[in-house]
Structure formats: C-alpha cells, structure tokens
Amino acid sequence: MRRVTSTVEDVDLLLRTIRDHPWADAWQLSGLSGLPLRTVYRRLKDMGRKGLVWSVRVGVPDVRGKVYAPGRNGLIRLAGGPRVAEPYARAFGLDPMGLGRSLLHVRALSWTRNFLVSLLECGQRLEWAISPARIRVGSRRLTLDGQGCASPWPGHHLLFGVLADTGGTTVEGWADRLRLFLLWAERLAERREVAPVLVVLTTHSTRATRMVALWRDVVETRRRETQAHLFVAPVDDLAAEAGVWRRPDGGRAYLWEGVRGSPEPFRRPWPEVEPGKRARGGSLGACMVEGPLGGNAVLQAFLHLSGNDWRVLEAVGSWPLLRSSEIAALLGWQRGQTARSTRLLLEMGLIEAVDLPGREGEERLYLSPLGIRLLAATHGLRARPYGRARLWPVGQSGPVHLRLAPYLAAARHTLLAVEFVLGLRRLADWWWEQGYFHRLVIWDSVECIRRYTDGRGRRRFLRPDSGGVYQVGREVYPFLLEVDRDRGHRDRLVAKFRRYYESRRFPGPLEIGTMPRLLILCAAEGRARQVNQVLVDLAREIGEPVLDAVITTFERICFPGRFRYDGRVERIESGGAGRPSSPRMWPGLREWRLAGENFGRLTWCFPGLDPRRKDEALRPMDLQQLDREVRREMRAGRAQRERRRRERAGMPLRAGRDL
Questions:
Q1: Which of 4, 112, 411, 485 could form an S-S bond across to 145 if both were Cys, CB 3.0 to 4.6 Å?
Q2: What is the distance of C-alpha 512 from the center of its chain?
Q3: What is the pLDDT of residues 54-112, one digit of tens each?
Q4: What DSSP state is assigned to residue 489?
Q5: CA-to-CA distance for 581 and 559, rounded, in angstroms?
C-alpha cells in the first residue's frame, strides 16, 4: 500500500535527501527517498520556484538530465534559521566551494547513487547513506564517493564505503586512497570488532581485475592482516544480487558474501556546525544572485559542454595529435559529427591545434592547460598529479601544460599507432554490420602500460606504442603494439624486446594472467625477419619460450581502398575517377606471421578472426528489435485482413489506413 504523505513532509524528505546526495538527478532522488518519480518531479519544480533547490543540466556521460542541490532558502530551512545557514552549509560541504567540487565529480557520484538505488530495489535496507563522504583519519582526510550502513537481512548491519573508478588514469593512482581506507578500517576495528566493506565500481572487467591485484599489493606492502573486505565489479554488471563481484582471493561472489555484520546499526557521522565560520567560495547571499557556482573558469567550462563535447574532449586526452575525422572514426560517428564539438572546444580554450612539420594544414589536436585542469577536476585531482597519473610530459614545476616536443619528435610513430587503432575500429564496425559480435573494448593509451621488476629488483615501466582489448564473441584479446620503422641498430632492438621478456618473467603485482599478445609492425620484410630473429635469440639466451608475438609489414596491411569478407578476406583496390583514397591499415587481414622458428606461416593477429570460428562470434539476438518486428508484422497482417473484408463487403477504403 502506497504511503500517503503531505506536501510539507515530501519537501522536507527531499531536502534531507538532496543534502546527503547533492547533485543527484530526479530518478536517484526518487529511489533514495522512496517517493514516486512523478511526485518528485512535481515537488522539485515547486521547490525550484521557491529557491529551496538549485538545478543545473550537465552533459557528462552517464548523468541523466538535471541534477539538484540545496538552494539558499533550502539551507536556511535545513539549518533552522538564516544565522546558522552559512556554517551549516560549510559543515555539510554545501557551500559554493564544496558544491563546485561535488559537481565536477558528478559522474562518479552518479555511479555511486545508482548503486545505492540498486540495493534498495533488491530489497535491502539502508539505515543511512551519504555521497560524497569525507572521513578524518589522523591528520589526513579520506574522501569516498559514498558511505552508508546497509542491512541485507534483519539483525545484520554492515558499514561500507564506495569508490567509483571512472577510468582515465592508471590503476596505481588509487593506491594512496586504498592505504588510507585500510588505516581507517584498522582504527575502526579497534573500537568495534567489525571491519568496513569497500565497494569499488569500475569501467570494465580488465580494470576490475587490476584493482583487486592493487588491493592485494597494498595489503602485502603494509605487512598487516586486515579485516576489511573488498568487492569490485564493472559498472555495466552492477547488480546487488548477481555473482559478478570480484574478491581479493581472485574468486567471484555475491555482494556481502562472507562478511560478518554487527547486530547493532552503525551510527551516522554528523559534522559539527561551527557558528563562527563562513561559507567557502563566497557568501550564500551572493549565491542567490550569481548562482551557487560563482565564476570559476573550470566550472563554467564544465557546464557549457554537452555529452558529445565531453566524448571528444576525453578522446583528445586519450590520444594527443588526433584529427577531428579520426576522433569521429574512433567514436563510431559520422565524419562531420565532431566538427561542431571541435570548434566549440577550440573557442573555449579547452583544446589547441598544431600543424605537424611537413604536413601543414592538418590540424592535430591536444589538450590545453585549461582542458587538463578540467579533466583533472572531474577525477578529484589537481592538474599535475593527474598528468603524472596519465604519464604525460607535464614537467616538474611551473604552469601545467602538455609538452609537445616528445610527441612532435615521434610524430610519425604516433600517427602509425593511431592509424592501427583506427583500423581495428573499422574492422569491428564491419563485422558488426555482418551480424557478428566484434568490439574494440579498450583503446586508451594509458591502459596498455605495464609494470615489471628488472633483475635488480627495481620497478620499471613497459610503455608500448599502443595497446587495448579486442573482443570477438565471448573471447577477449588484450594486445600490445610496437611500431618499428627501421630506424635503430640491432642492439636497440635487443634492448627493447629484452624489456618484454623481463616483463613476462618478473611481472608487477597488478599484472594478472598471461602477457597480452604483442603485435609488431615493421617497415620492410627484411626488418621483420630481423625482429623475429632477435626474439628467438633472446628466448634461447634466457631459456624461455618465444614471446607470443605476431609480425607483419606496412605494405601487407596498409593500402588504399577497403576490404570485404567473401569466404576469405581480400583486398579491393579503389579505382575510378576522382581523388585517390589515402592508404589505410586493415589489421584483420591474414597477413601476420607468428614469431618463432616457423616464421613463414601466415595467420591472423587474433585467433577469433579465423573464419572457421565465425559461428562463435554471432551477435546476440536483440529481443527488443525482434519484438518490434513481430508487432510490425502483426499490424500489417491485421491491416491486410481488414482491407480484404472491406473490399468483399463493398465498403469504401479508409484513406491513410487501407490505401
């Protein structure tokens, strides 16, 4: 039976929910408050007219429509009077500075609130929940995207924290926060015999596995046993009742499985309101005129971007020196779709353009200092730590900017790596059109960086030219890419590939499973044979098997035109009048050779591209599309029968229906 409430009760309940979850959307507020969605929309509209809430519309991916935060009159109502409204806002992080920080982090907060709503939809009870949460641990502050007390069943209470990893940085960047969480868990366990649970939401399964490995490494480094529990899952698999959660032991489990709870609920932490302190970032009176966000340049840029603008900005951050047409190809858009977003980002000063030496007129895009600051703020970091987490050349001091010299010095190298990734994207799109499940899952350059320990015990980075994950059906194929343009002596080849053997022999703590397949592009056939011989000689010297690597040359997979599948993959050269097409890479051709003693046999870069296995990659049936087609056929059948009935009865046909 639906609970009957008054308007005043609904408004107070929504105000408290928005206070605990600033910048939540209407659907999340409905799930967290228990009010019907239609009622929430109606109440929010009235509250906005009365100045009880602020609302803004953001274009960040995974955020729906408007998001809401307490307004000036709402804070006065929550605090109990205008004299304590400003210190109340500061205590709860609802002053202009706190609201601005939360708004920039709204994507991670949205993931967290969706998780909290999923708990309630699965029948679990939340004694209390807040997002974000700031916890004092000694002299430091632990920032979580969410914190709460859940009761999966009566008499069983769990204290949990939530971290939302939206990607874009190395997994190692979360190590400090995990250490601080473990320290907080130890101090909490000293007072109560129940340790908290950390729930991590991440982007994909590969990153989830690396996050679990990072947790184990942090625990082993501290050399202390911990009672804290960890559950990690990709956000696409978010379901409280599904066994998709990764555990530190490497297995999978249901959420809260194996966690011992407390018979008494955990007390919610309430901040202390200090009447003498004013709000940070401006007074609430000024906010009534200027809005709650003031004139911060990063915030203003954040609010002006749409969803497409954000995707283009993130693509430029993932791969510097891209063109607008290449961004469209990577995102799966039409060539002209990125033109508007590119112009807007250039006008706002978030990206800049540069001409490569000898290739004037080709505007290559890269992040400006303001763009770096904006992306860093959305991850809760400052510009320089964010640049280091991305392994960008941002310098050690002075203004934070992307130093282009390393990229321009190896511009040809970078463009070849980009063209290869574009070729994989074209391959996946072509197979998808044929009805097969091919997908380029990961193409961010930061995801392919590997850590390893050299022979002296020092930690090193292995930085290939590119990398990612390609999916065929249910199989995923992680890969690393090396582009060799025949510019170095054999000794340089030996030094480069020796690092790959060391990475396989002494993997870092986050490298789980076998080493990804290495794809090597060479300039000529002779160079390809030399690279293969170096790999074989190093394997004999070390006494290990040859690396899992396949080698090809540019001329074998790079040519003008396109390709098709007609029993076998073949080239179709472009011809006819008009401007000739530029060479493109087609990695899906059977023009690769497996490194080793038997180097002459041709194969595919991924085993799943073998046409004999194509039935394993059939695309899953779209049940909604099937339902639409069935309904369309049923309507057509009914219309045809009605038309025949009218014709037999001599009745006039109805315009627009029977004609």
A1: 112
A2: 20
A3: 999 988 888 878 999 999 999 999 998 888 888 899 899 998 888 988 999 999 999 99
A4: -
A5: 9
Beta bridge partners of 511: none
Beta-sheet strands, E only, within 13-124: 24-25, 53-57, 66-70
| DSSP letters spanning 107-141 | HHHHHHHHHHHHHHHTT-EEEEEESSEEEEETTEE
Q: How confident is the model at residue 281 (pLDDT cuts 50, 70, 90)?
A: low
Residue 557: which pLDDT band, with cuts at 50, 70 and 90?
Answer: confident
More confident call, 643 vs 596:
596
Angle at 626 between CA 622 and CA 629, to 5 degrees: 140
**Nearest CA to 562 among 444, 427, 448?**
427
- Tell me: pLDDT of 533 over 90: yes
Task: Using the Cα atoms of residue 14, residue 17, residue 23 and residue 25 in order, give the sign of their dihedral.
Answer: negative
Tokens of 50: 């009365």
- Distance from C-alpha of 84 to C-alpha of 271, rounded to nearest angstrom: 14
Residue 365 sits at the vertex; the CA angle it makes with 361 and 367, to the nearest 5 degrees, is: 150
Residues 485-495, mean pLDDT to the nearest whole number? 83
> What Å distances lie between residue 286 and 52, 71, 290, 291, CA to CA?
15, 12, 6, 8
Tokens 């991440």 belong to 202
d(C-alpha 43, C-alpha 33), whole Å: 13
Write the pLDDT tens digit of every residue in 360-405: 667 889 899 999 999 988 888 888 888 887 877 777 666 778 877 7
Crossing angle, helix 26-33 and helix 37-49, to 10 degrees? 110
Which has the closest alpha carbon to 292: 305, 282, 304, 307?
Answer: 282
**Can you give the pLDDT at residue 1?**
40
What's CA 436's distance to the chain center, in Å? 24
Helices and strands (DSSP H and E) totals, the chain: 22, 27
**Same CATH fold assignment for domains 1-104 and 106-268:** no
- Which residue pairs, CB below 8 angstroms and at least 24 apart, start in 342-351? 342/312, 344/304, 344/305, 344/309, 345/309, 345/312, 345/313, 345/316, 345/371, 348/301, 348/304, 350/301, 350/313, 350/374, 351/313, 351/316
**Hey, how many other C-beta atoms are within 10 angstroms of the C-beta on 500?**
21
Q: What percent of the chain has pLDDT over 70?
A: 82
Written out in words, the top-level CATH class of the domain with range 106-268 is alpha beta
Question: What are the boundaries of each domain within the chain?
Answer: 1-104, 106-268, 295-390, 411-617, 626-659
Q: Angle at which helices 324-331 and 411-433 pack, to 10 degrees? A: 40
**DSSP strand pairing (584-585 vs 133-137):** unpaired
Q: Residue 572 gets which letter from DSSP?
A: E
Q: Which fold has domain 1-104?
A: Arc Repressor Mutant, subunit A (1.10.10)
Count of C-beta atoms within a 10 Å radius of residue 165: 24
DSSP β-bridge partners for residue 68 = 24, 55
Read off the pTM. Answer: 0.83
Rounded to whole angstroms, what are the CA distances from 495 to 346, 409, 489, 596? 41, 21, 10, 18
**pLDDT, greater one: 16 or 647:** 16
Residue 125: CB partners within 8 Å, gap ≥ 6?
150, 151, 152
- State the number of CA atoms in the 13 A half-sphere of 489 facing the CB: 1
* CATH architecture of the region 295-390: Orthogonal Bundle (1.10)
